[in-house]
Design a protein that fits this description.
Distance between the termini: 17 Å
Structural class: alpha+beta
Number of strands: 5
Number of helices: 3
Order of helices and strands: HHEEEEEH
CATH class of the largest domain: Few Secondary Structures
Helix content: 25-40%
Strand content: 25-35%
Number of domains: 2
Radius of gyration: 19 Å
């Protein structure tokens, strides 16, 4: 079963790492996520947010699809261009994720 980590869990670990009270870390973590969300929402139309040693968040444009098909009805529909999010892990994170599963405690 997949483990779910919440924003509160991130705040607790952050508080422990930086030696602050949990309520202070929660405000900071919430502020970081709010800032990232605002940068991505304001993308006109694309943006790249690079966080060194972690990864890159991007908002990219998609192309319109004039001949998409509804799989349920088979009807041909038009799907307009839109924006989508993309995350690319940085080198440190990639190296950690390359560890074979049988070597993880």
């Amino acid at each position: 079963m997949k483990k779910t980590i919440t924003k509160k869990d991130v705040a607790k670990r952050t508080a422990k790492l930086v030696g602050e009270k949990i309520y202070q870390a929660e405000r900071i973590v919430d502020g970081v996520f709010t800032s990232l969300r605002q940068f991505m929402a304001e993308a006109d139309p694309e943006v790249r947010i690079e966080i060194r040693d972690f990864g890159v968040f991007e908002v990219k444009k998609t192309k319109p699809k004039p001949k998409a098909r509804n799989p349920k009805t088979g009807e041909i529909i038009y799907v307009p261009a839109r924006r989508k999010t993309h995350f690319k892990a940085g080198k440190l994170l990639k190296d950690v994720l390359k560890t074979p599963l049988d070597q993880i405690k």
